[in-house]
Amino acid sequence: MKRNTGQDRNVTQNWKPATQAIRGGTMRSEFGETSEALFLTSGYAYDCAGDAAARFAGEQVGMTYSRLQNPTVQMLEERIALLEGAEACRTMASGMAAMTAALLCQLEAGDHLVAGRAAFGSCRWLTDTLLPKFGINATIIDARDPQQFEDAVRPNTKVFFFETPANPTMDVVDLEAVCAIAKKHGIVTVVDNAFATPVLQRPLDFGADVVAYSATKMMDGQGRVLAGAVTGSAAFINDVLLPFTRNTGPTLSPFNAWVVLKGLETLDLRIMRQSENALKVARFLEGRVPRVNFPGLPSHSQHNLAMRQMKAAGPIFSLEVDGGRKQAHALLDALQLIDISNNIGDSRSLMTHPSSTTHSGVAEEKRIEMGVNEGMLRLNVGLEDPDDLIADLDQALRAAGL
Fold first, then answer.
1. Using one digit for the tens of pLDDT, what is the confidence trace for 170-194?
2. Which of 9, 46, 108, 126 has fewest C-beta within 10 Å?
3. SS (H, E, C) 322-350
4. Which residue segment(s) compose the domain that 146 sits in?
5. What's residue 217's pLDDT?
């Protein structure tokens, strides 16, 4: 394969994000295709046995096995790295594969990490259940307060792990302050940036070391495939993460990589429009329900911080009703346009009840600690006309007694 003209990293890293999202990482075969080629192959042939030995020894550039390299996957990895402002990227089969790999590749028995209390249910399972099985202890803190990170540091603390904005409470973490604390103590900061994507927020610009994604969400953006990604320095990705993924195999398929490549082409357009739609919908809901948790609203306690480190507040937020699960479910059941679904980042508007879906595997006392109550609903605002979404929510709210 030959690279597209201009695909030198020194050139592409100077392109604007909109250009990188379309052309970054592009490679073309001898056929000169304009759209990225889809390479559905598990293995690769060599001209001679010596070439095979040289590639496995790292002495010759080239592909060896699609658990390690694939041309389509490589294009996606280079494109995400460019958008993130990172030196390198490795993609995974899902967002949780990415989160798991980003932590386990650098932690071992006797290590300690500090994690934000507000998180996706499966991320809390990692910190609360999986890591302790391997002798890795976690201190769970309120990540909204940087001082709590400082206070939780121990001599064996290796990682700070948090989401911002957090799922589904929409807690915001002061990236600059927390990353500065981490660097002072030689701690690696791992940020789950799935709710924002590099279009709205680039944690590396604030001092983060590693940024992880569920690319299933906004990067695909149309509810089609599962994918995950981890970005960071070349040293971390190639020397720390790659040995773990090479031998454990959380590999992204070429087809899923190709779909996400197509999603990235419209990511900026989608997420900015969905952010605008979400703000309009949130303003409507603010006058109808007891609480709306959306950093884009001035009423959010961390609005100023969010707007300082984010380009826009994104398409996802949560709201709360006083009638607990019964009223929350009644509202969901009355929806006519918005789908009941636990996915997010989709171009379609989706709503779910976290306590009985995404966070149902988290013990009740921990859900309460996280701020996930029985009256909370999470809304992903899509690309539909926001007035239609407001009309649907209005009739559903009335049907639920609100």
1. 999 999 999 999 999 999 999 999 9
2. 108
3. CCHHHHHHHHHHHCCCCEECCCCCCCCCE
4. 71-263
5. 96
